Every structure is written in structure tokens, then in C-alpha cells.
Amino acid sequence: MRAAHDGDGLRFIEVWVSTSPEECARRDPKGLWARSARGELSGLTGVDAPYEAPARPELELSGEEAIEGAVGRVLTILGPHPAAV
Question: Helix (H, G, I), strand (E, B), or coil: what is residue 71?
Fold first, then answer.
């Protein structure tokens, strides 16, 4: 992704929401984590399929961070919107 953006002269910002597996399971609206725990589903990323955290994200957000604070941090790293300047 980053290389494709760079090749087109576009800015790329990687944001990683580093939520714990326990929190992912708690928030799971489709019940995929529960199905995986019961052995009904395999290949779920972060459970029995590999997950690789990004090597150098521009921003890391904790899954426990308040939404308002996380949004503020994303907006800060994005900078002013061209239409607002």
C-alpha cells in the first residue's frame, strides 16, 4: 500500500489500532471469536491464523483509548484539511 501511494505521489499514513485479543473478542459483533473458541471456525486472524503488527505505523492507537481521544489523534496527524485552510 505504502509503495503504491508513494508511486502516485500520495501521502500514506498507517494507523494501527492495537487492541488486545481479549478486547477484540469482547467487542465482536458477529460472534466470530466465540465461534472460533468453540471450534466452529478456523483461520481467524489473531486466533489461529497469523497476525503481523505493522513495523512502523505513523500512529498507534490503543483499543482501550476513548473514541474522542483517538479521533483527535488521527485528525492531528492528518493535519488541516485543504478545504478548511
Answer: helix
Q: Please state, in angstroms and as integers, the Cα–Cα distance from residue 75 to each residue in 9, 17, 19, 42, 60, following that order.
A: 21, 15, 20, 36, 13
Interval 7-44: pLDDT, tens: 888 888 999 999 988 888 999 999 999 999 999 999 99
**Verdict on whether the full-model pTM lies above 0.85:** no
Per-position DSSP letters for 25-57, written without gaps between them: HHH-TT-HHHHHHTTS----BTTTB-----SS-
Integer-rounded Cα Rg, in Å, for the chain is 17
Domain map of the chain by residue range? 2-84
DSSP per residue over 10-27, as a string?
-----EEEE--HHHHHHH
Range 2-84 has CATH code 3.90.1210.10: no
